[in-house]
Design brief:
The protein has two domains: 4-145, Leucine Aminopeptidase, subunit E, domain 1; 165-476, Aminopeptidase. Helix content is 33%, strand content 20%. The protein contains 14 helices and 19 strands. It has an eight-stranded mixed sheet, with helices on both faces. Strands 1-6-5-2-4-3 form a six-stranded mixed sheet, covered by helices on one side. It has a three-stranded mixed sheet with strand order 11-12-16. α9 (274-285) crosses α14 and α12 (379-392) packs across α14. The longest helix has 25 residues, at 148-172. It is elongated and about 75 Å long. The mean pLDDT is 96.
């Protein structure tokens, strides 16, 4: 259930708890009845993300919210503080706080990140639970302050948080509950609600289009593939910058013939469509947020399963752009379906492309679960993405697109192999680069941050919806990158 936010001039008497921002230095707010020395003995120093609940004999409970040094308060720390407050207040139905009106941050931005932090921290995927004893009771949040900027920021934050939580829900759904067909139908429904043009392509159409990558990966599944193309055009779209998003949508990845080991990570492969979920969620926000750029989204959706008809090693597939690929590992399937999506994206001659995919364990091992990797053929475009990551706290780290590694993908029977060499994250990106031609392009590998195994800050256990907020920000602020 989404939180309801309101902007009020003063805390309503109905609030069951009041969130009080407390810095790590200087005088305490007059509403705090305890001394700083006492609070420190209780383990509360005002550090960002700390909270302390002060009981009340009557009236609202006080929840102290650590915001760190006021001079260092930024959007990341405010979002983290808001998330901590939401967790501490989860047992109360209604709360109020001045958190969106502290420091020198732009009021619109501050309200947005407070809403994001609280909404993301309290969200849970509960569709399949008959009883959820840990479900937050929190329903209404009153942000104390005034002004159109605050109200605008609240609305913007709700749109972005709801989209991120939608991406989380899709990625958390078990495979039987979200096949490629069901996901495509959901995309049609969402497009109708959010002002998008939508086109769905079935297996026969994909065959006719020469999309040998997605069709080849799909061969082991009884569920047919789907490709969804979503188009957003603002008023007066002609001449506006055009960005294309391509999302990996492997609804369940067993590894195919190259079967994955039977361990806990296998169960998480329902989330191998997190890239497509992030693209769909991003596209759903563009009209509401007043995006002035043209944006196209491709969702490349199929299972990767073993069967008598499954793709075999040594097989050669022909991609949409005509390149042939020899299969040396059927578990390196994401790049095969992205190859078709990138080829189609490049045919549109956009100003830039970005693909997002849970692509390689190598990237996860290199960067851990806290950030994604980015590579591409245009530094100015990568800089735009890393700036978006900085603003949204969807952490992103640039890896080198080392073209000296490209020979590792050479095949003696086809144009290239689908795997090769030791630097798996880099060679995967080099593979993808073969399908964008001279179009400005970047690749985001989200294998690490797609999932978290515990509640932490604004992240909640399960699929994270990583990349949704990053892509929204990148689309809203997109500018033609020009030459690298």
């Amino acid at each position: 259930m989404a939180l309801n936010f309101e902007v009020v001039a003063k805390a309503p008497a109905t609030a069951k708890a009041v969130g009080i921002p407390v810095t790590s230095e200087g005088a305490l707010p007059k509403e705090v009845s305890l001394s700083r020395a006492t609070l420190e003995t209780l383990g509360f120093t005002g550090k960002v993300g700390q909270t302390y609940v002060v009981p009340a004999e009557k009236g609202a409970v006080s929840i102290l919210i650590g915001v760190g040094e006021m001079s260092k308060l930024d959007t990341a720390s405010l979002r983290k503080a808001a998330a901590a407050f939401a967790r501490a207040a989860s047992g109360f139905e209604s709360v109020s706080t001045t958190l969106a009106h502290i420091g020198r941050l732009d009021r619109k931005v501050a309200a947005q990140v407070v809403v994001e932090g609280m909404s993301l921290a309290t969200h849970r995927y509960t569709d399949l639970k008959t009883v959820d004893k840990k479900a937050p009771k929190l329903a209404t949040v009153s942000l104390v302050g005034t002004g159109a900027a605050t109200s605008s920021g609240v609305k913007r934050g709700q749109v972005i948080a709801n989209a991120t939580n939608m991406a989380r829900d899709f990625a958390n759904m078990p495979p039987a509950y979200l096949t490629a067909t069901i996901f495509a139908n959901k995309a049609v429904e969402i497009a109708g609600q959010t002002g998008l043009k939508v086109e769905v392509f079935n297996k026969d159409q994909l065959l006719a289009m020469g999309c040998g990558g997605i069709v080849g990966v799909n061969r082991g599944s009884v569920e047919p593939p789907r490709m969804v193309r979503l188009t957003y055009k603002p008023t007066g779209a002609k001449g506006k910058p055009h960005l294309v998003l391509v999302g990996k949508g492997v609804m369940y990845d067993s590894g195919g013939i190259s079967l994955k080991p039977s361990d806990p990570s296998h169960a998480m492969m329902k989330g191998d469509m997190s890239g497509a979920a992030a693209v769909l969620a991003t596209m759903s926000t563009l009209k509401a947020l007043g995006c002035t750029n043209q944006v196209t989204g491709y969702l490349m959706c199929t299972d990767n399963l073993p069967s008598g008809s499954a793709m075999a090693m040594g097989e050669v597939l022909t991609m949409r752009n005509g390149k042939t690929v020899e299969i040396h590992n059927t578990d390196a399937e994401g790049r095969l379906i992205l190859a078709d999506g990138l080829s189609l994206a490049a045919e549109q001659k956009p100003d830039a492309i970005v693909d997002i995919a849970t692509l390689t364990g190598a990237c996860q091992r290199a960067l851990g679960n806290g950030m994604a990797g980015v590579m591409g053929n245009n530094q100015k475009w990568i800089d735009q993405l890393t700036a978006a990551a900085e603003r949204t706290s969807d952490k992103l780290w640039q890896l080198p697109l080392e073209r000296e590694y490209r020979p590792a993908l050479d095949s003696y029977v086809a144009d290239m192999k689908n795997v090769g060499g030791e630097a798996g994250a880099i060679t995967a990106a080099l593979f993808l680069e073969e399908f964008v031609g001279d179009t400005t392009w970047a690749h985001i590998d989200i294998a690490g941050p797609m999932w978290t195994d515990s509640d932490n800050g604004w992240l909640q256990k399960g699929m994270t919806g990583y990349g949704t907020r990053l892509l929204i920000d990148a689309a809203l602020n997109f500018r033609r990158p020009g030459r690298a």
